[in-house]
Amino acid sequence: MSVTPFRPIQGRRIFEEILDQLEQAILDGHISAGDRLPSERQLAEQFNASRTSVREAVRVLEALGVAKVKPGAENGAVLVEKPDDALRLLLRFQLALRHISIASVIEFRTVLEPWSARAASERATDDAISRMQAVLVAMGNPIVGPAEFHQLDATFHIEIARAAQNDLVVLVLDGARTSIERIMLDALSRVPDWPATRVRIRDEHAQIVNAIAKRRAEDAETLMKRHIRSFYDEIGL
């Protein structure tokens, strides 16, 4: 880490200002992944803040999964090389508490997922395609009930997003799973002919994977958009 970029805190909630300055220091390149932050005492001196405020800010970083802290250590928190799933879980709670409307979920999926399918057809590795095909095999098991089938369906769509190799798309789509799951499970309970619907969904998935594997980007995008829209149309949403 280069020479300290921090300045004394003035006004507002102190720990929030500390977080803002730490974020800016990362964006400016003063701090990088793998760097160890100054000790709690040193940060308190640099920010002209109490150690309690510094400790609160560091705990937020730890809760967000971007820093690791050893209890009682005076040598500072370490910014992790690869953040964990805390932000994804935070997004899932936020969306669940906001009670996102069905219309919003449908619009979200019909915009984002067809793009993911198109991008996956251009970027997917052989391993990524194999993972999609493995999910298809599991979905074909006749003893799989609606709830487990939905979990496999969600995994399938996440695998396509991962194959598109856009980390932000994966984060947002995976974070939205709570809202999507709430709607999907309710929707599945209203399907008039579940055995026929599950066969149709799996067949549509197979067509999408085939388009991705054959690098037919436009077909993959069109098939995904039709797949999402047709399911919601079937149950009158």
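Above is the first protein from milestone M3; the second protein from the same milestone is given next.
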Amino acid sequence: MRIKSNKVIRSADYTEIGLKTIVGKNISNNFPVHTHESYIIGLLTSGATYCYTLRGTALLTAGDIYLINAREPHSFQNPNSGVYDYLTFCCSKRLLTNIFAPKSEVNQSPLSLYFIDIKLKDAQLFDTLLQTYRLLQKKSTPEAKQTSINTALDELIKHCNVTFFPEVIKNKAQLFIEQNPQLNLSLTELAKIANLSPYHFLRQFKKEVGVSPYQYQLQLRIKVAQSLLQQNYSIAEVALETGFTDQSHFTRFFRKHVGINPGEYINCNR
């Protein structure tokens, strides 16, 4: 008899303000190296886990706020096989730039925000972000939601160290993968798009993106799959649409990257 999982991964999109929230409960698995287009402001609400980034390693414990930069390779490793709960705000570049960028620089050349700290420990800020999430869940206008998240981010800026860098332009192969995540693309084909040898292309891609072309395409497929599952596509349809060889293959990679299997994800996000 199969034991029902008590893991929960629940997401909510607030596209109109450039925000997505994700809640994870009773999470016990590790998450492999991956990147996001958005910035991650996370709350560890219980338990503990290690966060690995280019900036270093941090042991996150209950009450910690963790900060992940857009496009920054990172992973989570669970110590002692315990369980933990988290809440993340996935913030678009536009949303954070409007809050953090120096006013004199907003209309100049594009800048990318860069969090220097991996984690913060501030009970009042933690509670402010938690209350913001609860306000977002309530029925309200986009303007009210925008005001709520802006207030929380205004508070965050007082507690963290940031800097700015010129925005990095994506290479042609990266853009091609983003536009065609479902295609089975060989290293040779992608290298040709980038006008490089396969050897030099692989090195350059990993240097610029932080993961291999295969890993990058895989995480994009999973992201598309999550969206399709929330639109009531069947698991078999999603596996086919996202380029996996079969449903079993899709389920295995989905669980590895999301933390639960597709069926559980559907139940959590109804």
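Note on the second protein: The two ends are 25 Å apart (CA to CA).
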